[in-house]
Amino acid sequence: MPHPSLTAEEIATQPENWRTAAALAASGPAGLPRRGERVAVVGCGTSWFMAQAYAALREAGGHGETDAFAASEFPTGRRYDRVLAITRSGTTTEVLRLLDGTGLPTTAITACVDQPVAAAAGHLVDLGFADESSVVQTRFATTVLALLRAHLEREDALPAGVGTVAAAAADAERAVGWRVPEELVALEQVSFLGAGWTNGLAQEAGLKMREAALAWTECYPAMEYRHGPISITAPGRAAWMFGELPAGLAGEVAAVGGRLVADSGAGGLDPLADLVRVQKLAVALAGHRGLNPDEPRNLTRSIVLG
Predict the structure, then answer these.
(1) What was the pLDDT predicted at 298?
(2) What percent of the chain is predicted at pLDDT more than 70?
(3) N or C, which end of the chain is more exposed by having fewer CB within 10 Å?
(4) For the chain, which ranges sit under pLDDT 50?
(5) Rounded distance, CA 51 to CA 269, Å?
(6) Which residues form a coiled coil (predicted)?
(7) What domains are defined for the chain?
């Protein structure tokens, strides 16, 4: 039998979480990157993928050169004006080691300001209102990106074609109310695709499906999909695009018998709201398979190394 899902309840709060984050960004919290700073954004797992999305948004908007790294892969010899760390728990070992040893100005965005990250980071941004009980991250991650996106909006540094957080939150309300189609639950495999800032969203979508439902997913930049990965697409499998669909891709997916999901971008859902739909699909698929999405196999809320 399907398990009651706390994850589903946390998913539903995201529109309001994003609006709260936008209000926080408007207050100008200390430690967020200033225009022109060269910034490295780091995290682990989901937080790394949000770092990728923000880095692409910030640099494309002309706010400053921005790189994203898994915390364990940070290039210690490279110079930055600021290291921005994302850690829901405030206890992730790789993030704490980096903050303790970098010697650079640091800021951490966390849901738990009473954890070791408080002593390790130069500045803290408190997103405790978006904390979660579930192991699988949903609302904290998207709320971090909403905060950083709203900060760019405040700085007049959103790339062309990227909507406001207010508009994204309105789309997220639609996504929360979306009923997952049975035919998506029945899919054997999904390839998630992105471009620019939505590459991070595609990576996160794939991770969410793997974590919550043990699903077979692949994640690629959209233009790379035709350079090999399309070989796995077939009837009963899908390609899911975040943002604008590249010319010709729809026909190529159809030609190999795959299903195309492309409902975000111009005239559709905000890509961040489209990620909410994937979260809902992950929960639905977990229930279909008799899995508990709140406590995924082999995972804990925070990775603390010895």
Answers:
(1) 61
(2) 96
(3) C
(4) 1-3
(5) 21
(6) none
(7) 6-160 (3.40.50.10490), 173-288 (3.40.50.10490)
With beta carbons less than 8 A apart as the criterion, state whether 93 and 116 touch: no
The pLDDT of residue 296: 76
Neighbours of 240 (CB within 10 A): 27
Tokens representing 5 are 């899902």
Beta sheet of 82-87, edge-to-edge order: 66-70, 39-43, 82-87, 106-110, 123-126
Residue 65 has a pLDDT of 98
| Residue 143 and residue 169 in contact, taking contact as beta carbons nearer than 8 Å | no
Query: What length is written for the chain?
Result: 306
- For residue 301, give the 3-state DSSP assignment: coil
Helix (H) or strand (E) holding 261: strand 259-261
DSSP assignment letter at 266:
T
Distance CA 168, CA 291 (A): 30
DSSP string computed for 200-249: HHHHHHHHHHHHHH---EEEEEGGGTTTTGGGG--TTEEEEE-SSPPTTH
Whether 74 and 103 have beta carbons less than 8 Å apart is answered as no
Contacts of 104 (CB under 8 A, 6+ apart): 79, 80, 81, 82, 83
